[in-house]
Amino acid sequence: MSSRGEIIQIHIGQAGVQIANACWELYCLEHGIMANGALCQMPNDDSFLTFFGISGMALKVVPRIVIVDTEPTVIDEIRTGAYRYLFHPDTLISGKEDAGSNFARGYNLLGHDLIDRTMDAIRRVAEQCRNLRGFLIFRAIGGGTGSGFGTLLLEKLSEAYGRKTTKAEFLVFPSPSLSPIIVEPYNALLATHYSMDYVDVSFIVDNEALYEICDTKLGVSAPTYTNLNRIIGQVVSAFTASQRFYGTNNVSFEEFQTNLVPYPRIHYPLLTYAPLVPVSKFPYVNSNVEQLTQSCFHPGSQMVRCNPTLGKYMACVLLYRGDVSPNDINSSIQQIKSSRTARFVDWTPTGFKIGVNAMPPVFVPGGDLAPTSRAVCAISNNTIIRSAWCRLVSKYDKLYNRRAFVYHFVGEGMEEGSLSEASQNVCQLVADYYEVESSARSSATQADNDD
């Protein structure tokens, strides 16, 4: 078993399943695992055991994963795709009908049909772990399955595994102007409200920000979900490298919550990744550590549409991998501090948590990203994330003021008051972020007056 413990990944709904394709494609490349789960050669260490268990067959591994959707179409693509022999069939769980972009339908009717099968599958995977560190969940909260069933599953995970087992999630958040589902605001608010107390940290991305990154940084003018999800896959790989590969200054799974979340409700960090270099510029671009670090604080690098310079940082974890030196990292951090590129609340003693892993980034052949010898992933808790919630509440108000589409949710067994309750909770979340920022501003003003 892995000396660092094991992590189970759970992919929910269409977005979660499609992200699974990108993540596990990359994990297999990183650990020398073929599409059928066979090891290319005898491993030199046990790094693969964080995400993979050993099958009964010689030199064969199986992912520690559960993939679930309320309808079979997307999971059937895995069952018949290139990686169909990688996943254990019992961990691919699908229902028979779509959640209809309806939180209440995913949570109530279809959710209760699937939840026992899903929890049984998770239990069987967990029983193969010697030291289960936690769960990593992937879902979109604009649709019915990710929002509704995802919330139900988080509730059941908390009941079964308690608070000692870390639960982190990657959320695909509704985009500011791209909205394929008209009731996205309802679904996202309900999912946020009902799952807030059951997850320790939620990393947010939105497709609009990823589209812009593909267009402006990678030269992909008409990106597909595969293009977007491979960017997410690189971020997840960087985030989990410390859990898998040995390093001089690794960050444990639990430390993300400890270092990023000052208050339980304030657990929605921003994500950035650098470098984002198109294949067309390989091998002419090779950014140094200072350039990589600086780019993590640029608004155009954020994976949610927001400008972090307009908010205050409460914490920032920088995860470096590959050809980096401690001196270069320290110099880069000092440059960030001296230039006030990142403004921190005054009660944060150091602000930065640094992780360093010698394993260089790996890239998918034929993908959009050029191979590089070093990379960094920044995970930052910044008060500006409130702008994403404000946009969501504004869209909700436009719908709910006319009671538009409310009957769809009530017809699936939900109380109408649940929508108002969810809106109030998210508005309070926005107020919580404002309070953190205003208290920091007041402290700074007081310090200036004292001078």
Calculate the mean pLDDT score and round it: 91
Structural class, by secondary structure, is: alpha/beta
Work out the oligomeric state of the chains in this entry: single chain
| Ends distance | 57 Å
The run of helices and strands is: EHEEEHEHEHEHEHHHEHEHEEHHH
> Which stretches of 5+ consecutive residues score pLDDT under 50?
443-451
Outline: globular
- β-strand percent reads 15-25%
Largest sheet: 6 strands, parallel
The top-level CATH class of the largest domain is Alpha Beta
Q: Give the name of the CATH superfamily of the largest domain.
A: Tubulin/FtsZ, GTPase domain
Structural domain tally: 2
Domain Tubulin/FtsZ 2-layer sandwich: 250-394
Domain Tubulin/FtsZ GTPase: 48-247
Main location: cytoplasm
Organism: Zeugodacus cucurbitae
